UniProtKB/TrEMBL annotation:
Pathway: Amino-acid biosynthesis; L-asparagine biosynthesis; L-asparagine from L-aspartate (L-Gln route): step 1/1. One of its GO terms (molecular function) is asparagine synthase (glutamine-hydrolyzing) activity. This is asparagine synthase (glutamine-hydrolyzing). Belongs to the asparagine synthetase family. It comes from Bradyrhizobium septentrionale. The gene is asnB. The keyword S-adenosyl-L-methionine does not apply. Pfam families: Asn_synthase, GATase_7.
């Protein structure tokens, strides 16, 4: 786990201020790699690579980067290739290894298979390889977007980095991308390659990038396929799930340093921690953040139940309003731009705690999207069941949960009444895509605060619909798979963005064993009525691990992610703090926003609204990056 950056001239001519450019990028991603740094440039001065090292595998200098192979290829790489041991053995006949690192395994794989080397890599990765023989820069990002890769082309030079902030010195102006802003306001994340920084793009998950002959081209090398298997029994799926997850856990525990675990009190992180403690005696440290100021936010009891069972040491941090005031600016800085919900803040605090004890931590990201863990799936299914019962259209038993089976579990929706009210406000029984769009739309209570005339909300819906209704890998009638597929392709990368930035802000590597591609590919074949049996969220996991997970967790009906008492804070201790931010003179002149309306409507939103969070994040982002753009440009202009 590290930080990478670099440049390549489109024309092959020397890049101006290349030393200053490499130094600036290295400085801006220094937090990602506290164990070492390196730079490399070709003789012509047209290509340069930067690396910041967090040493996890092969702690010796032989594992340092940028790493040059005997064939002249040079790599800067961030991530972990969990099957590097097996690949090394397979590739040893054609490559003389000089290190024990997974980095060199990628160089050897590229030498043997070229760009198709990515098909053989199992893990999380973002890398760039300079191929001197073919005068080509080849880059790739892992299948799920666990590791980041951003790029921009400025004045004939291609720049890339692990974090978008490292590209800001090369922009003539720091501007907001209106299309990306429309997506962020709608979902609180973007759903394409555009970022909130105009001119900076993200290499999408499962994509390759090549720069050759002056052209920058991207292409997809992997996608999840929902080829549902209706011929197997639930028992088969349970058995195969446990086999694949066990295998994933074993390779995810490969490390030359001890591995800890996040334990939130939910099923996913708890299961990962319990399995890790059994497979590796070094996995004895768990980390949890709690809120004690208000009732309903403390989940530490569930976390303790798990760690007691696993004989792990539970390290906890009590998170307060003062922590929010002191840290939120740093959270936004490390995120690069606002993304996902307020969970980034407690994640930042817990990662700081974990980094004091370990260098690697396991998390449970991916379980909700893969196994059906969001309450909105139940809301949408409830409506679909009502419609099917009224119309008498139970034609596909594989895709419709009967109303008889779902009624006993409607108590799970008690805390989601505002969501249901909004979902059914208008358009009841409308098209499936419009119904789900309303469920994930976070902007419905942002009316006067945002100048929607300057944005294109309809284009956001069309982009959403193209993904939601994509039949290349999801069957037309598979409503459950459509929902989980959209979240897998769009929400999950946003959550992984948070996972990466909040851990790397403290030089901590975060691994996500549920996102192992053999496991993900298998879960895409499991029928909805197995994953969601009886309307029970994550039923496959609950059944498969009923003898592993504590009953207290299996019977939980109140899990709400990583809840943060923002409503209580913003109504109380942090009210003046937030009003002062929105009341500053510079905030009154932001494009697309009306700060006066923000101030006048402050405090009106419900506990579940993310309006203030979303707008506050944007304002802090403007202050940290837009208002200080000159500081970034000065890093290379001197």
């Amino acid at each position: 786990m590290c930080g990478i950056a670099g440049f390549a001239s489109l024309s092959g001519h020397p890049v101006a201020r290349r030393v200053a450019s490499l130094n600036a990028m290295s400085s801006l991603i220094a937090h990602r790699g506290p164990d070492g740094s390196g730079q490399w440039s070709d003789d012509a001065g047209s290509v340069g690579l930067v690396h910041r090292r967090l040493a996890i595998i092969d702690l010796t200098p032989a594992g340092a980067q940028p790493m040059k192979g005997a064939n002249g290829t040079v790599i800067s790489y961030n991530g972990e290739i969990y099957n590097f041991v097996e690949l090394r053995e397979q590739l040893s006949d054609g490559w003389t290894f000089q290190s024990h690192s997974d980095t060199e395994v990628i160089l050897a794989a590229y030498a043997k298979w070229g760009e198709r080397c990515v098909d053989h890599l199992r893990g999380m990765f973002a890398f760039a390889i300079w191929d001197e023989r073919n005068k080509k820069l080849f880059a790739a990002r892992d299948r799920f977007g666990i590791k980041p890769f951003y790029y921009t082309v400025q004045q004939g030079v291609f720049y890339f980095a692990s974090e978008a902030k490292a590209l800001l010195p090369f922009l003539s102006e720091v501007e907001t991308d209106a299309d990306a802003l429309s997506e962020y306001l709608t979902f609180q994340y973007t759903i394409g390659k555009k970022t909130l920084f105009k001119g900076i793009s993200a290499l999408l998950p499962g994509h390759l990038l090549r720069l050759a002959g002056g052209d920058v081209m991207t292409s997809r090398y992997w996608d999840v396929q929902y080829d549902v298997d209706f011929d197997r029994s639930p028992a088969y799926f349970e058995r195969r799930f446990t086999e694949l997850l066990s295998d994933s856990m074993q390779v995810h525990l490969r490390s030359d340093v001890p591995v800890g675990g996040y334990v939130s009190g939910g099923l996913d992180s708890s299961l990962v921690a319990l399995m890790a403690s059994k497979l590796d005696h070094r996995s004895r440290d768990a980390f949890h953040g709690r809120f004690l100021e208000f009732p309903g936010y403390d989940e530490s009891g569930y976390a303790k139940t798990v760690t007691d069972l696993a004989d792990m040491s539970l390290h906890m941090v009590d998170i307060t309003a003062a922590d929010f005031r002191n840290s939120i600016g740093d959270v936004i800085y490390h995120l690069d731009f606002p993304v996902a919900g307020p969970g980034s803040f407690p994640q930042y605090m817990v990662s700081a705690l974990a980094a004091k004890n370990v260098k690697v931590v396991l998390g449970g990201q991916g379980g909700d999207e893969l196994l059906g863990g969001y309450a909105r799936y139940l809301v949408a299914y409830f409506e679909q069941c009502i419609k099917a019962a009224i119309d008498g259209t139970y034609q596909s038993r594989h895709y419709v949960v009967t109303i008889e089976s779902i009624v006993p579990n409607l108590g799970l929706l008690r805390e989601y009444k505002p969501m249901i009210k909004e979902f059914w406000r208008d358009g009841l029984f409308a098209d499936l895509d419009r119904r789900y769009f309303r469920l994930v739309d976070r902007s419905t209570d942002m009316v006067g605060e945002v100048d929607w005339r300057a944005l294109n909300k309809e284009a956001v819906f069309e982009s959403f619909r193209a993904i939601f209704n994509n039949q290349d890998n999801v069957r037309k009638e598979a409503y459950f798979d459509k929902m989980t597929h959209f979240d897998f392709k769009c929400l999950l990368p946003a959550l992984l963005h948070v996972e990466d930035r909040m851990s790397m802000a403290h030089g901590l590597e975060s691994r996500v064993p549920l996102l192992d591609h053999p496991l993900v590919e298998f879960l895409a074949t499991v029928p909805a009525d197995v994953k969601f049996m009886g309307g029970q969220m994550k039923q496959l996991m609950k059944t498969a691990y009923r003898d592993t997970l504590p009953k207290a967790l299996l019977q939980r009906r109140d899990k709400m992610g990583f809840p943060v008492p923002l409503k209580e804070w913003f109504d109380g201790e942090l009210k003046d703090f937030v009003l002062d931010i929105f009341g500053e003179q510079r905030s009154k002149h932001r494009p697309f926003f009306n700060s006066d309306v923000v101030l006048s409507s402050f405090g009106e939103q419900s506990r579940f609204s993310r309006k203030t969070w979303g707008l506050l994040s944007l304002e802090l982002w403007h202050q940290r990056f837009h208002d200080r753009a000159a500081e970034f440009r000065a890093m290379v202009s001197a």
